[in-house]
Amino acid sequence: MSMPEADIMQKLATSVSKMSDEMSIEQMRLYQAYVTKSLEAREAEEAFMMAVDEESGGDHQTSQSLQDTRQVLSDLNCRLSGSESVLIACFAKALEGEEHMDTKRLNILLHSYGRKPANTTKIVDALEKKAWMEIRSDGLHSHKLYRLTRAGEDRARNLIEQLVHSDSGDRLAIVD
Q1: DSSP codes, 43-60
Q2: What 8-state DSSP symbol labels residue 140?
Q3: What percent of the chain has pLDDT over 90?
Q4: What is the C-alpha separation between 7 and 91, in angstroms, rounded?
Q5: pTM score of the predicted model
């Protein structure tokens, strides 16, 4: 156990000792239940994160996917439709750890690659109809947040795979 861990453990033991002197038996049982549930939640979260990491092949595979995604976005010989550009850009942001996107951030990303479509919002709506995108909104005129569904991630992965491993110079993406 490292010195900071030992110090934390000592402080925790002192704190729990003081609390137990001041708490009733019922309060101690409730506190025990709270700690038990917190521990179970933490263990479940860690198990989930490990499973996700194993499923995706870990950081190396995520890094490679992000490199491939950026390569496709930056290669202007690879002519993408607006839907494909939005799909791939959202996938890039998901790989970077952003759970939800908004139109402004997405447009900035696409513009930085020279790929900003005419109407990102309409494209996102169309991708939602294909079940590739999930939109979260608080009302008709509210700020919308969206993210790829599992099917959208799979579609983006397949599209990137096809484009990265294509041998032709002037590549044309598969327009849906």
Answers
A1: HHHHHHHHHHHHHHTHHH
A2: T
A3: 19
A4: 43
A5: 0.61
Give the dihedral sign, CA 126/128/132/133. positive
Helices 120-129, 103-112: crossing angle, 10 deg rounding: 110
φ/ψ of 172, rounded to 5, equals -115, 125
Q: Mean of the per-residue pLDDT values for the chain?
A: 82
| Residue positions counted in the chain | 176
pLDDT-derived band at 136 (thresholds 50, 70, 90) equals: confident
Multiple choice CATH, 58-164, 3.40.50.720, 1.10.10.10, 3.40.630.30, 3.30.413.10: 1.10.10.10
The amino acid present at 11, given as its one-letter code, is K
Rounded distance between C-alpha atoms, residue 106 and residue 127, angstroms: 14
Average pLDDT over residues 94-103: 86
pLDDT tens per residue across span 3-35: 567 788 888 888 888 888 888 889 888 888 888
User: How far is 23 from 31, CA to CA, in rounded Å?
Assistant: 9
Cα–Cα distance for residue pair 153/65, rounded to 1 Å: 11
